Amino acid sequence: MNNSWLILGNFNAMLGMNSCLNGASVHLSEITNFQQCVTNIGVGLVPKVGQQYSWSNKREAVNKIYSHIDWVFGNPIWMQRFTDLKAKYMLPKYSDYSAILVNTKVIRKAQSKSFNLITILLQQETYRKAVEITWR
Question: What are the boundaries of each domain within the chain?
Answer without folding.
Answer: 6-108
